[in-house]
What we know:
152 residues, Rossmann fold, six-stranded mixed β-sheet, 6 strands, 38% helix, globular
Amino acid sequence: MNDKTIIIMIGIQGSGKSTFCNKFLENYKRINLDTLKTRHREQTEIDECFKADESFVVDNTNPTKEERARYISQAKTEEYKVVGYFMESKIKDCIDRNNKRTGNACVPAKAIAATSNKLQLPRYDEGFDQLYFVKNDGTEMTVYEWRDENEI
C-alpha cells in the first residue's frame, strides 16, 4: 500500500485527540477546524495536502459517519490509505480534562455532552483501511487494534 495516509481522529472534546496527535503523530501535517475557523480554510489545507501527496491528520471530533465521509470519500479518490483513531470518550473524564483548559480551548460542558450524544463508533465499511481504539487514563494513552464494537 502507498505511503499517502489520512488519519481521522474521532472523539469528543477533551478526549485527548490533540494531545495524541502531538505525542504520536508529529510527522503528519495536523489540520484542525478549531485553528482554521472555517470549512473553506480546512478544505483548502486538505486540497493542498492531496495535491502534494502529503500525509496528514484531521484533528476534529468527527463524531458521525456523515462527518467522516467528507474526508474518506476524497481520500479514496486520491488513493490515500485511511486510518481512524477512536479516542475513549468517557464524558466525565473529558469534562474534567476540559475544565483544566484555558481560553478558547475550554468549551462548555453542554457542547461536550452534545457531541457525546451524536458520537457513532467508526466501522470499516465507512472506508477505513485501519482502525484503532485509544484508551486514555489521563496519564497514559494505549492504542489497541479495533475490535467488533460489542467488544469495546
